[in-house]
Amino acid sequence: MARTTDVRPALAWDDARLVLALLRAPSLVIAARRLGIDKSTLSRRLEACERALGAKLFLRTREGIRPTAVTERLRPRVERVEAEMLAMASAAVAGGEEISGTVRIATTEGMATRLVSGGLLELRKRHPALTLEILGGNRPVDLTRGEADLAVRVTPTKESGLKVRVLGKFPIALFAAPSYLQARGIPRNAAQLEGHDVLLPSGELAVLPEARWLGSRPGVDVVFSSSSLPALVEASVQGFGLVPVTRAWGESVAGLEHLFTLENIAARPTWLVMRPDVAERAAVRLVADRIIDAFQAFAKGR
């Protein structure tokens, strides 16, 4: 009688993406957001994948998720699958053109961090001749003068003749660290903010509606202000007070808890802006498409 061999099914691309997202995220919630699905859907898909492979892939601990030895052995394989899929996408976008040179992206300091966490640098795996430069700051650059190749903006574009695409609209919410909330209580609406410490956007960011609104709440104590949103977020993670940021950003930070969305403040639109002639470069088109994909994932996780 011929011997039978136990052959495990190969990972499909969607399963490989799931494994990679879990390997690169500190928690199921953040991995789900990056995949554009909810936590329960991710859990079901992970369980189905584990059943198909006949092996446990991740352990749930108090500190987050931890890959098993099986998953560590799978890591190089799923990374190769990802590289091949990126190559296929790149070829489709570029139409066979060489992807090389520097692409400069102008955006805010906070958005710069989100682009990196959203996988922008993964493009380098298949295109080593591509150099990415992010110009992070609150001052809008002049694309018409060639200060950058494209921009991700949270303010309307005033220059004429530019290609503009809405990447998404992101609600603003208040967040705080669990340590702060345990010591000071959990405000769930504007009326409960009195007596709380707040971290306020300042400088160029003082014009933001959430900065004006939060600073005008009766009885709040502004303990720290900054023109750097990442600095404000870090201060909140360390337990110094409440911080207003987009809900998508705040929920991606492991050390913050969502309190309530500021329904009186309109969801913040974000735009991708390019000069039409610059958009003809294959490298710029590829980077633009990766940014669009990243923000679609952010929007689904809001």
Kindly list the characteristics that best describe this protein.
single chain; 302 residues; alpha/beta; Arc Repressor Mutant, subunit A; D-Maltodextrin-Binding Protein, domain 2; 3 domains; three-stranded antiparallel β-sheet; 10 helices; 12 strands; flat
Helix and strand layout, with pairings?
Layout: H1 13-24, H2 28-35, H3 39-53, E1 58-61, E2 64-67, H4 69-94, E3 101-107, H5 109-117, E4 130-136, E5 150-153, E6 163-170, E7 172-176, H6 178-184, E8 197-201, H7 209-215, E9 221-226, H8 229-237, E10 243-246, H9 247-251, E11 257-261, E12 268-274, H10 282-300
Parallel strand pairs: 3-4, 3-5, 8-9
Antiparallel strand pairs: 1-2, 5-12, 6-12, 7-10, 7-11
Describe the structure.
Helix 1 (13-24) crosses helix 2 (28-35) and helix 1 (13-24) crosses helix 4. The chain is flat and about 55 Å long. By secondary structure, the chain is an alpha/beta fold. The protein has helices at residues 13-24, 28-35, 39-53, 69-94, 109-117, 178-184, 209-215, 229-237, 247-251, 282-300, and strands spanning 58-61, 64-67, 101-107, 130-136, 150-153, 163-170, 172-176, 197-201, 221-226, 243-246, 257-261, 268-274. The chain folds into three domains: 13-91, Orthogonal Bundle (Arc Repressor Mutant, subunit A); 97-169 and 268-300, D-Maltodextrin-Binding Protein, domain 2; 172-261, Periplasmic binding protein-like II (D-Maltodextrin-Binding Protein, domain 2, 3-Layer(aba) Sandwich). The longest helix has 26 residues, at 69-94. The strands form four sheets. It has a five-stranded mixed β-sheet, covered by helices on one side. A three-stranded antiparallel β-sheet has the order 10-7-11, with helices on both faces.
